[in-house]
Amino acid sequence: MELIGQGIGGLQGIFGKLLPFLFVLTVVVFIHELGHFLVGRWCGVKVKAFSIGFGKEIFGFFDRHGTRWRVAWIPLGGYVKFADDENGASVPSKEALDKMTPEERAGAFHTKPLWAKSAIVAAGPIANFLLAIAIFAATFAIFGMPVTAPRVDDVIPDGAAARAGFKAGDLIVSINGEAIDSFGDMQRIVSASADRELTFEVNRAGKLVLLKATPDRKEISDRFGNKMRQGVIGIRRNTNSSKDWEVRKFGPVEAVGMGVKQTVFIVTRTLGYLSDVIMGRESPDQVGGPIRIAEVSGQVASDGFLPLLQLTAVLSVSIGLINLFPVPLLDGGHLLFYAIEAVRRRPLSERSQEIGFRIGLALVLALMIFATWNDLGIVKRWIGGSG
Questions:
Q1: 197 with 212: CB under 8 angstroms?
Q2: Distance (Å, rounded) from C-alpha 197 to C-alpha 153?
Q3: Spatial distance between the Cα atoms of 365 and 301, rounded to a whole number of angstroms
Q4: What is the number of alpha carbons within 13 Å of residue 24 lying toward its C-beta?
Q5: How does DSSP classify residue 113?
Q6: Which of 175, 387, 366, 163 is nearest to 284 (CA)?
Q7: What was the pLDDT predicted at 116?
Q8: Which helix (H) or strand (E) is 182 found in, with range?
Q9: Are strands 178-179 and 198-204 parallel, antiparallel or unpaired?
Q10: What are phi and psi of 68, to 5 degrees?
Q11: CB of 268 within 8 A of CB of 192?
């Protein structure tokens, strides 16, 4: 009976993560594909299908323009299929183009000018970035943001801050010349700067002092037990004190600016991590796939809808950024082909594009397999009912 109970608990845990995961991924994918769709329609391209998910259709309908809107069984992405596409990845179909009438060719994606094709392709990732900015801006404007002054209450012995000469009571004014407005600002810079020397300007009893510290790379755990490696310098704030703490509200314009700032931070942090992996400074074991997204979605959803919405913004930035990588099959790969076409003043041969798409497919599949391998430990926790 105990074994049966553990199994039921594991299933309940899985379903508790599935619904938040579907919400987050569906919103992000829908907005991404909507970007392609709207700009495509604006450029006069006929859209055959707008799909959320892959595989067999669960339900769908035709709109007045003849586009099939569908939801499919495999909720791991989506696509917009134009009239002359061979598949949902917008691989050109010469056979389809050859069979089209002049009127039909006028609505084909691959007969459009280079600027129009580039705009349609870029619209998906741009829509993801705009979604993130909108979510962050709305959050800052409606709910505000808890802000703690960047004051040092305690210096951990033998930490980077102690070695650099920090003292309790120091107020951090800037890091590498960038003004620091809150403890969170300081944490964002430090966490992304492991093993890199930073110059801190601190206010010590009314006097400005320059200190140099190199954040240590350490593994930390969040309250859900998720482990991550990031830079730390070894200082603490007294979270039980109301001193230097406030909930700051922002006007519409300022909130949008904060949304842009948060989005840019996620992009730079992601690129910094990938750079560290390539340079051998960081392990790639933090790369996760749909399983890890589901895990984090379930954990965040337990704190309420607002944190889940903020996770949606973070994931939207990540999806937008990944799609801009110059890998064939991804939006960035199409943009790379168009850039080459602009330079050569003629498109790559069909054979070259076909080889590129095959290489891109192999890279995408390899990344998916690697991410799934990293996530196997999460699956074991789910099955055991401890996740």
A1: yes
A2: 22
A3: 29
A4: 32
A5: -
A6: 366
A7: 94
A8: none
A9: unpaired
A10: -90, 110
A11: yes
H or E stretch at 103: helix 102-106
Instruction: Provide the β-strand partners of residue 223.
Output: none
**Can you list the residues of the chain whose pLDDT is less than 50?**
1-11
Supply φ then ψ for residue 149, to 5 degrees: -60, 145
Sort strands 145-148 and 47-62 into parallel, antiparallel or unpaired: unpaired
| DSSP E strand boundaries for the chain | 47-62, 68-82, 145-148, 154-155, 171-175, 178-179, 198-204, 207-213, 216-221, 227-232, 235-236, 245-248
**Residue 13, both tokens:** 């845990």
Buried b (16+ CB within 10 A) or exposed e, 321-351: bbbbbebbbbbbbbbbbbeeeeeeeebbeee
**Tokens for 370?**
């690697």
pLDDT score recorded for residue 224? 61
**What residue has token string 């907005």?**
31
List residues with catalytic annotation. 33
Specify the pLDDT at position 2: 46
- DSSP per residue, 156-182: -TTSHHHHHT--TT-EEEEETTEE--S
Residue for token pair 């999460």: 378
Torsion sign (Cα): 98, 103, 106, 108: negative
Pairing of strands 154-155, 235-236: antiparallel
Asked whether 241 and 207 are in contact (CB, 8 A), the reply is: no
For residue 51, the model assigns a pLDDT of 93
Rounded CA-CA distance 161/221 in Å is 21
pLDDT the model gives residue 193: 85
Q: What is the CA radius of gyration of the chain?
A: 24
| Domains of the chain, earliest start first | 1-38+112-144+250-387 (no CATH), 44-100 (no CATH), 148-248 (2.30.42.10)
Could you count the other beta carbons within 10 Å of the beta carbon of residue 4?
8
- Distance linking the first and last C-alpha atoms of the chain: 20
Which of 323, 326, 305, 327 minimizes the C-alpha distance to 315? Answer: 323
pTM: 0.83
Q: Are strands 145-148 and 171-175 parallel, antiparallel or unpaired?
A: unpaired
CA dist 117 and 335 (Å) reads 9
Q: Which residue is associated with the tokens 């965040």?
A: 300
Q: Is 9 helix (H, G, I), strand (E, B) or coil?
A: helix
So what's the pLDDT on residue 381? 62
Q: What is the pLDDT of residue 353?
A: 81
